[in-house]
Design goal:
The protein has two domains: 3-116, RNA polymerase sigma factor, region 2, helix turn helix motif (Rna Polymerase Sigma Factor, Chain: A); 141-198, Arc Repressor Mutant, subunit A. The protein has nine helices and no strands. It is mainly α. It is 75% helix and 0% strand. It holds the Pfam family Sigma70_r2. One of its GO terms (molecular function) is sigma factor activity.
């Protein structure tokens, strides 16, 4: 398994050293896409989402070294709270700026009105599941061919075994075996990611 999947506890302890560039790079690699996806799902445009992710990472860089690690609490919950607070701060700053500038207020107000905050818990949960699924599939590429992964995805989508077999020129027995082996491995990958990253 890649080094990126060190346990959350180990990674959080390593980033207490703000100058441990390797740890912070690893931390960014693990969580940046997740944070960005949540923010984008809140109807925030790509440029603003990038800025907010950077603000969150800066805040984490400042706060995490002084935090104590508690295995009973979910780090992902903490990320969700920090993300929500940063989005609220972004909206407040943008509104104040628009009030000062008094230009294109209506257009900007429409954009700010479209941002959905009350749903952040559900958005974060959905994006986390997508994130874990994608990471698990990335891990499977170490041991399975792209064709095998695509066949397994078709099975997960509910396609008939005969249809998958035909699409990949396999026997139905081969598809059943592939589906069984990959389903077990995929479940283990998801469990490891949940343990290490949540």
């Amino acid at each position: 398994m890649n080094d990126i999947y060190k346990t959350r506890k180990t990674l959080l302890l390593r980033i207490k050293d703000q100058h441990n560039d390797d740890a912070w790079s690893e931390f960014s690699q693990v969580y940046n896409r997740y944070l960005y996806a949540i923010i984008r799902r809140m109807n925030i445009n790509a440029d603003d989402a990038d800025d907010i992710v950077q603000r969150i990472m800066l805040k984490l860089w400042k706060k995490l070294p002084e935090m104590t690690y508690d295995e009973q609490k979910s780090f992902r919950t903490y990320l969700r709270v920090v993300t929500k607070n940063e989005v609220l701060q972004f909206i407040d700053q943008r509104k104040r700026q628009m009030n000062r500038d008094q230009q294109t207020y209506d257009d900007g107000n429409d954009y700010l009105s479209a941002i959905r905050l009350p749903e952040i818990e559900q958005i974060a949960k959905n994006e986390w599941e997508i994130y874990l699924t994608n990471r698990a599939f990335d891990n499977l590429t170490e041991d399975y061919s792209e064709e095998a992964i695509e066949a397994f995805k078709m099975c997960l989508e509910g396609k008939e075994v005969s249809e998958v077999a035909k699409a990949f020129n396999l026997t139905e027995k081969a598809v059943y075996n592939l589906r069984f082996r990959m389903k077990e491995r995929f479940g283990k990958e998801i469990a490891v990611l949940r343990r290490d990253l949540e």
